[in-house]
């Protein structure tokens, strides 16, 4: 009889940007054919997830209930995508109510399996409290950071230490992470900049982050060779193993299904790109959750037009409007902009969503003007595309810093949703990167080197295992060792 497969339980935070890397990690683990994978979430999220699982997937989806109304949130709120930003703190705090349900779920899972426990529980960085349940049952518990090591090391250190509150200077170092070098106050999200750490949300948030130290280890969606100092920070901080297993990237066929509709078909996009010369097109996108101010949007439009470069620009309504709302070109873009660039064949303005991976993998693409969200960063670098950084919030500021200062594949062009941007500055940076300038050539060369590094990190051959493959093996081994020790311990008790 075939031995029963070990069960791995995974629990992402209820936000698309968290669920997507968890899903990809789940699919990656499933491919090894050694594990049963159980993804835990609330009903509406699972419904969406189900439709994006490949038909032949055997990943189990297990529901836990969440009553948003009981937490003073709008009905059927189960994902940060469906709430305005100011409700995020309330939503995050409400997710603690999932703990007893999670415990019950694990207890039932153990009972159903005749006492055989899951091999490990992998939970989100925002769900560190799952370790209580994991440790009660003697199950290995890892936190999975879907973002980068450096980005989250800066983010973590800022929240835990609030160094910007202890100085009047605009620039400062992180006390427990001087290796990150100087940060500037404009690299901190408004909420974090304003708080002195004593309001109830900040107290809660810091407590949530401090739970990371109780995990048995941390999985990071990154590549060791590119992210050494960020990984070092967590190892030093927690004295626990840190496993860089990235990039976990959603394969193209799954990406479309995660509840998104493209504003343009992949085929039309490819056909348009086919008509453009090699390395001549700028791709512009600020990701699914972010947008820029209306005044910034106008400057960007004028810069793109003035640069004369080909471009594909994914537009969303500017700040202050519902990001999922219809885009009103005649209100938010310069008069006649769309018609002109269409007439010239210079650009495609895509509403809502574009098939990003298809675009970035096309040889006509030269650079990516990006908010530096980690998925976008991986998707650009896996295809050797250099980045023009315009980070908007959270870890994006530190991703941009890492890419520019440590890796050399990015120039930052603007920062945040409130900064003043001028079309002259934007087009100068666009030309610097896309023209045959010394800097532009250097960035493209480096981006191609990084592409090879990423490719090697995930190589899994008989005689060669990349760093990310090795890290995954080490993580699974650590879980197995704990399982064996638990077995030994319970035998001794008998
Ligand atoms: C599902 O099918 C795809 C495509 O044929 C294959 O690559 C993948 O390994 C399959 N997955 C499972 C779990 O069988
Ligand atoms: C970039 O190239 C364009 C067209 O060849 C040229 O007009 C512009 O001055 C160049 N800019 C830089 C910064 O080299």
TrEMBL record:
The organism's place on the tree of life at top rank: Eukaryota
Cytoplasm found in the keyword field: no
Entry keywords, A to Z: Glycosyltransferase, Membrane, Transferase, Transmembrane, Transmembrane helix
PROSITE patterns in the cross-refs: UDPGT
EC numbers, comma separated: 2.4.1.-
GO molecular function annotation: UDP-glucosyltransferase activity
Enzyme class (EC, first level): transferase
Keyword rRNA-binding attributed: no
TM spans (from-to): 139-159
Domain Glycosyltransferase N-terminal: 8-135
Family of this protein: Belongs to the UDP-glycosyltransferase family.
Protein name: Glycosyltransferase
Species, as recorded: Citrus clementina (Clementine)
